[in-house]
Amino acid sequence: MRASRCWQLLLSALALVSSCAVRGIEAQPTIELPPPLQWNFYQNSCPDVEKYVRDQVESYWKQDRTLAAKFMQLLYTDCFIKGCDASILLDGPDSEKTAPANKAILGLPLEVIDKAKEVLEQHCPGVVSCADIINLAARDAVILAGGVSYPVPTGRRDGNSSIAKLVDIPVFAVPWDKVIPYFQVRGLDVLDVTTLLGGHTLGKTTCKFISDRLYNFNNTGQPDPSMDPTFLSELREQCPPNSTNMVYLNPDSGPSYTFSKTFYSRVLNHRAVLGIDQQIAAQDESLQIAKRYDANYEDFLKMFGHSMTKLGNTWLLPGDQGEIRKNCRVVNGK
Q1: d(CA 170, CA 323)
Q2: What is the C-alpha to C-alpha distance for residues 229 and 221, in angstroms, rounded to an integer?
Q3: What does the buried/exposed string (b/e) look like for 123-135 if buried means 16 or more CB atoms within 10 Å of the residue's CB?
Q4: HEC profile of 142-200
Q5: Would you state the pLDDT for residue 101?
Q6: Phi, then psi, of 64 in degrees rounded to 5
Q7: Are 129 and 120 in contact (CB under 8 A)?
Q8: CB burial class (10 A; 0-12, 13-18, 19+) of residue 197?
Q9: Please, what is the angle between helix 297-311 and helix 67-82, to 10°?
Q10: How confident is the prediction for the chain on average, in pLDDT?
Q11: Residue 298 gets which letter from DSSP?
Q12: Pairwise CA distance, residues 280 & 292, whole Å
């Protein structure tokens, strides 16, 4: 029954997304937005905001194609700590940036945001929030990596604090029954989880994050029994014990840094790199979604944009709280 309900949810969501794709801007109001978000929030105050951001993302993408995976991780991290408020961008000795879990997302995306903010302050001073820049830039990076375009509502406010100890992003070995509630309290369901994990078709991970699957799954001294034996051997060659090597999250498409239809096929064939990805195939609801995406890649691309939009709506500051930072790295007045 649960799988059947999830299937209906997927079909309903796809119908909505397909309608939006056909009708364009006219369909956007059918997506319920939490305040203070609006469609075309900057239409009068900064009408070219999306172009200014897109130009910077495209410029940096040409230099480094890892940008899409990093921006998706940046958006996820910012929104899931205490809401989409750009707190991840603030500097400080105990800011979110300093948390070990966030080490991998520092660098290039922050440079892109700094440059985009610099341009925006020249054309529209004090108008565009850093939180909106993160969301717009992530969408543009997804498109460059072969994803489909999706609408990004704007009007987010920037937070005034950033605290490392609040960072509680689940690591890759977290059981599925703990991951789902973590997403649910942020307004995302099993469909969104299964879909957003498809973003792991991009990027890399360090061997230490999968070593338990290869050598000591659940402290048994044995590998993860859900792994295809041939793939296990391949990964062990790349990740010997105590290795600090990096491996592609999707070996089929990794070097191209583009979205690939093979991600869910690998999950279904027990050839996922991350344990959290392989768990998709072990649950009835997510398994049915994975089968649908494997058979209909375009459905995945449409739903990925839909779930990214929902991700960007997480725990927003009301319009009378927060600020519009002039520099994304520091709160105003400092």
Answers
A1: 29
A2: 16
A3: ebeeebbbbbbbb
A4: HHHCCCCCCCCCECCCECCCCCHHHCCCCCCCCCHHHHHHHHHCCCCCHHHHHHHHHHH
A5: 81
A6: -150, 110
A7: no
A8: buried
A9: 40
A10: 91
A11: H
A12: 13
CA nearest neighbour of 272 among 261, 264, 283? 264
- In the predicted model, what is the mean pLDDT of residues 173-193? 93
Alpha-carbon distance 253 to 261, whole Å? 9
Dmax (CA) for the chain in angstroms is: 62
What's the pLDDT tens digit per position in 225-243?
Answer: 999 999 999 999 999 999 9
* 301, two tokens: 């691309």
C-alpha of 208 from chain center:
21
What is the C-alpha to C-alpha distance for residues 140 and 196, in angstroms, rounded to an integer? 16
- pLDDT at res. 102: 84
Tens of pLDDT, residues 71-90: 999 999 999 999 999 999 99
Q: How is residue 247 annotated by DSSP?
A: E
pLDDT at 14: 58
pLDDT in tens, 120-161: 999 999 999 999 999 999 999 999 999 999 999 999 999 999
- Find the length of the chain: 334
